[in-house]
Request: fold
Amino acid sequence: MIQPWFLDAKLGIFIHWGIYAVNGIPESWAFFNEEIAYEDYMAQCAGFTASHYDPQAWAQLFKRAGARYAVLTAKHHDGVALWDTQVSDLNVVERTPAGRDLIAPYIDALREAGIKVGLYFSHLDWSHAGYAPLPVGRRTISTLTNATYPQLWPQGAATPAWQTFHTFYHKQLEELCTRYGALDLLWFDGDWTPDDDAYWRMDELRARLEDWQPEAVINGRMRGRGDYRTPEQGLPILPPEGPWEFCVTINDSWGYQVHDHNHKSLRQIVRMFCEVIGMGGNLLLDVGPKEDGALQPEQVDRLEGLGDWIRKHAEGVYGTRAGLPPGHLCGASTLSQDQTTLYVMIFDRPWDAIPIKGVRNGVNRVSVLGAGQELPYQRIGGAAWLDIPGVLWVTIPEEVLDPCATVIKIELDGPLNLYRGAGQA
Ligand code: GLC
Reply:
């Protein structure tokens, strides 16, 4: 069920942590795409130590970053569970030197820090024989039964193999949902194959989840039975319908990848964050810890920097709603819930005053958020007899510019009243 906390949260941290961090290769996809044989992929288990796992430090960092929730990969498509699942020995407790449940300490640490708890879980499981892991021609899995996509799936959802898988994965979800107390968010993935509702029976799953975790927010990757949309990696140009969250990596990888140094700059991340909240969404920013649980220093830097920016501009972030629709300004904006205050985010160094179009309201005051300084503004042009407002030009002196994004607070004389027309003459 969608919850008010989710709409107000604005920032979450996504954590892709699993055995793939040992070699530093793509999570799960490495064997699916035959970059590595299944056995070699699974051999990473021997190197997964969690020896520097410090979930309290994670939680403190996330808090400093300004995040209000976090989502950890309890089980990715590779099927390796981060907890001691009773229905499979493919878990870090039995198969890796980590040798313990990694979910419980994460949950405790988040709760202690006041951060909402989310778990990621992949519906599909490329290690479960009943799921029919890999298409023929791409099978590198020798340890599994001879189940394959073409053999199994055309026979329909009622095959015993599929039923075994279905029961198995619901059992794992039951474990996650009944062992750790209340979870705030369940983040599903991998609902795309088979592309047939009859297999997944998501209504049934949804009912179970609501039974186990009545308060939990459920993301949209439930073949349409979720609470919100989850565009990933490509920033939406138009806001998705309803509640949404944009998930994105800091470099180009979800998990830790040895060769990926392509980290986005802090300025790019702040800008992306502004654009997302300006369209009414949340940002779910991903980190990929190493096998020992240490976070990549470049990613820590970005989180600290984002946190500094958010702290300075918190009033224009938390609890706000989408701001002006496209076309009214260059930049992003949010709106207070009572709709009387606009927060305009300026990304670039202005050559001139900043124009804001279409605002019919009178303006009580314009100031710089974080600095407090009042700013001069002018209304220019417009066609009062057609109720087309003049452009509001706000002057921003150089010395109040924020190196990442400057936020201008515009206090209106009432709820925002926008002109959205095409002219009349
Ligand atoms: C995709 C990928 C997966 C990643 C997820 C995050 O669905 O399959 O590797 O975890 O995106 O949104």
